[in-house]
Request: fold
Amino acid sequence: MANEVTIQTILDGPRNVVIKVSGVLDTSDLAQTVLIDPAVLSGIDHSGLVKAKKLRLERVIFNVEPTLAVNMWWDATTPVRIEDLTAQGHKEFRSFGGLTNNAGAGVTGKILYATQGWVAGAILSFTFTLELIKQQN
Reply:
């Protein structure tokens, strides 16, 4: 078998985005790669032509097997770490307006992810759901 990751868009509305990610690792950790790109989501206006430039993270629900971590970054010239997901639980960011992309130079609006902690011979899994808000600036 090979590593398997499924990224499912649950909701892609004019404001809100919800994605669910499930993965099973049996050959290696996942290298840093794009998780979600606001440019490929539906538009934020009624015509659908105006695209979001960034995403704001409002909530994450996660279940990650022991020894494994799922790491997320805002994409930029130098990516900025958002969160490291380990064990299980949820993190709420709504009370202060969510986590916003402040990555600085070269911001693309994308969210990247990778895993760390896979060991030879192990079969490790993870799942997480992100609740996001589209932003124009």
Q: What stands out?
A: The chain has one domain: 4-135. The mean pLDDT is 95. Residues 15 and 123 are 37 Å apart (CA to CA). The chain is about 0% helix and 50% strand.
